Predict the structure.
Amino acid sequence: MTNPEPVDESGEGPAGSAYEGGRSPFRPRADVPMVQQISPVTAEVTEYTGRRLSVDLVAGLTVAALTIPSAMAFAGLAGLPPVSGLYAVLLPTVVYTLLGSSKQLIVGPEGTVSALVAAAILPLAAAGSDEAVVLAGTLALLVGAVFVVAWLLRLGWIADYFSLPVLVGYLAGVGVVLIAGQLGKLLGLSIEASDSIPQLVEVMREAGDANGTTILVGVVALMVLVPLRFLAPKFPAALLVVATAIVASWIFDLQSHGVAILGDIPSGLPSLGLSFRHSFDLLPAALGIFVVSYADGVLTARSFAGRHGLNVRANQELLAFAGMSAAAGVSQGLPVGASGSRTAVNDQMGATSQFSGLIAAGAVLVVVLFLTGPIEYLPTAVLGAIIISAAIGLIDPASFRDLLATSRFEFGLALVGAVGVVTVGVLRALLVAVLLSIVDVIRRSARPHDAVLGWVDSIGRWANVSLHPRARLTEGIVVYRLDDRLFFANAEYVKGRVHEAIRGAPYEVRWLVFDAEAVSNVDVTAAEALEDLGEELGRAGIGIALARARPYVRDVLDDAGVTAVIDGERFFPTVRSAVAWCDDQRRTQPGTTVG
């Protein structure tokens, strides 16, 4: 095979080149009309058919059946009237339909976000009060403002740096918090504590005053909800339980037996308004909700989009979440997020576009306008059971087992995150979770993966001797590979690892071949460390050769003066050629000290 003709210094490609005229080999996505950039759903309009509408109609109605009871339950969890949860479905869903880039994602009240809302507003207002509704609206507007700032700064990449182990632990902890917070409703007790451990202590102390009929209602609801959650995830079990409970409550007058019910729920559309009460007090919570809702939303959207070969635009999601948060804030709602369970059902039902979410919101609108009367008979224990059923889904033992099998450190991160949520509260634990993610990034950077290489005949290349114990070594030579960038945080660690590799060799070492193919970057500190390493090894009679170093890395080493220690002639295009040259030097000059 002949070598390709090189490109000349002017940058003009040779005749017949695929990149004539200096054209970049990277082609960005074709320009998208401005209206489609702002509102991705507009691209669907011209291609939308009756068949797609029928599919989206079924999916939307199914999602609505899950949304109505869960939205009321999560509003109660946030310390708000149940109708606030229904309001938080209406305008936010319309806005996400117009601005969102995911075809499957369903947004609305969500357990984790609702727990954060409760932690923020309940110290400032009584649960269910008008003041709590106003504060929730203020908080939603603040969340929207944070999303706008993030969108202007194009911070969509933030979602890529939220560690999975921390997210697994955080969600598990939130699941425990949600369950602890609903035990009082299931037992018919009025629990004053707001934190998980005090709640559990109070439940145990007051257990003797539990209402037997309330317990029966809650247990029956759980016996239906929990099995169907796993056995028939498409089935609207929550809607079935709610409808049955409303009928039973009316027929048997459960309120007279000590069972708490929702009571009067106003019908009609929410009034629109702006409020910025306690903005400074609520800003930290807004930042926390931004991190959680965005990370969870983008991860959920990407996971479902990937199944269909679709793309989710991270920065566009910032704009969509900003709009739907603001919409919730002006319509007596609460901060909202992405619902993984309802999104899964939407996808399972074959939804083809964002219109399925719009149809679900339309069904909720019908309930708000005409069906709030019957809902007043719903026992609060049933809403508690719905939240517990959803919370169980946040606790994923399989993920913990996978983390333990893969990395004990990452398992420890997840465990610390889970315990932190339960012991110090959701908001403080969120800060701990972010810090743990940063610690995880630092740990990975400071302790990069590396390997000593040997020649493996069966695969015809140099490979990790730990994975290929029968790999052939070349006497007197150690081949060391670093699988990460070389910079100030890991420079000393890499130096130490090179010395360990030399000490661990089964023969006297005369040459070190540094395989730098995976080294994407070298900073000044690392260049100096590499220079020091060359001098240290030179004094021990060991020379260094570099293989497969990238041109950019070579330039940095030249500028830093490293080539004064590691001769420029010792840079090789392959590990094989570097080892062959070093072996030849070892044979022809066996007693010479190498500088």
Residues 426 and 591 are 66 Å apart (CA to CA). The chain has a mean pLDDT of 85. The first strand starts at residue 107 and ends at 108. Residues 447-588 form a domain with the Transcription Regulator spoIIAA fold (CATH 3.30.750.24).
